[in-house]
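Q: Given only this backbone (281 positions), what sequence would you predict?
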């Protein structure tokens, strides 16, 4: 099998040397993990807005909702209906806002709890990665469950993850768990794109002043301490909440708003990063 054709890599032409991305689902160039230490910090909101922002830049983007305990991406991207499998083997994902989506939430009802042990979760992740017909993707974002469990480990070990984005709110209690997530990725040899501070500030409708209900600057300070990039702040904002919970992310509903621009800047930083370029050799 011919592996490389570029000048300078000719020593590898004709060899069977595997490339790291050969571990990825067919057609998928890069896998980017979106993680958090705690639940409820806005990891899924960041994932969906980032996916839509990347797609708006002309990239082919997939989103795998691997938050098996609370799959919320079908709602956040306004997708419903069961994915079909015409051949009984490959699953055809659904699409909205320019993003290809697969989620366990599409296979279960919104009220149904997923009561599974580790091996079942690991199997489900691998199935959703490998048995879904993703088509050709520049990026597959994986919205992970919070914490450092089986799903995170399986993703890091079985696939080639280009890097992880860790989302946290600014307060110590969330950052404490975010730190554990970062440590886990380090141990699994997954590079870190950086930290995002969500719910960083709030502009009051009444007085117009900026408030910081969860503190301010905690994730930036933590990133500095870890020598990791700080990827920016996303405000706590009613329109972000309405967009996420209503199936039209703010990047689509109000693309010119400062909030949507914050997600666009996040996408720009990821695309311009060394890890992003390095993932495809
Ligand atoms: P996680 O994936 O970390 O559990 P979610 O993305 O599901 O968190 O967010 C939890 C709730 O907070 C959702 O209702 C979402 O709409 C809301 N939310 C997330 N980020 C923001 C934000 N920046 N401003 C306002 N609401 C937000």
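A: Predicted residues:
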């Amino acid at each position: 099998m011919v592996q490389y054709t570029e000048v300078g890599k000719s020593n590898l032409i004709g060899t069977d040397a595997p490339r790291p991305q050969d571990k990825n689902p067919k057609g998928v160039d890069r896998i980017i993990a979106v993680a958090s230490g705690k639940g409820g910090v806005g990891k899924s909101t960041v994932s969906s807005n980032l996916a839509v922002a990347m797609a708006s830049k002309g990239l082919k983007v997939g989103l795998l909702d691997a938050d098996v305990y609370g799959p919320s991406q079908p709602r956040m991207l306004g997708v419903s209906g069961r994915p079909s499998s015409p051949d009984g083997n490959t699953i055809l994902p659904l699409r909205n806002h320019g993003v290809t989506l697969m989620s366990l939430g599409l296979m279960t009802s919104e009220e149904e709890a997923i009561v599974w042990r580790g091996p079942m979760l690991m199997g489900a992740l691998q199935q959703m990665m490998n048995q879904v017909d993703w088509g050709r993707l520049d990026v597959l974002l994986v919205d992970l469950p919070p914490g450092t469990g089986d799903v995170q480990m399986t993703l890091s070990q079985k696939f080639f993850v280009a890097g992880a984005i860790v989302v946290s709110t600014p307060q110590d209690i969330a950052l404490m768990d975010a730190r554990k997530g970062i440590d886990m990725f380090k141990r699994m040899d997954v590079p870190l794109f950086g930290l995002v501070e969500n719910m960083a500030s709030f502009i009051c409708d009444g007085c117009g002043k900026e408030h910081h209900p969860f503190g301010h600057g905690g994730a930036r300070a933590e990133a500095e301490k870890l020598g990791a990039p700080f990827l920016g702040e996303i405000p706590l904002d009613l329109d972000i909440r309405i967009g996420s919970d209503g199936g039209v992310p703010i990047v689509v509903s109000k693309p010119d708003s400062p909030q949507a621009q914050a997600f666009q800047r996040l996408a720009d930083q990821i695309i311009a990063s060394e890890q992003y370029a390095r993932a495809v050799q």
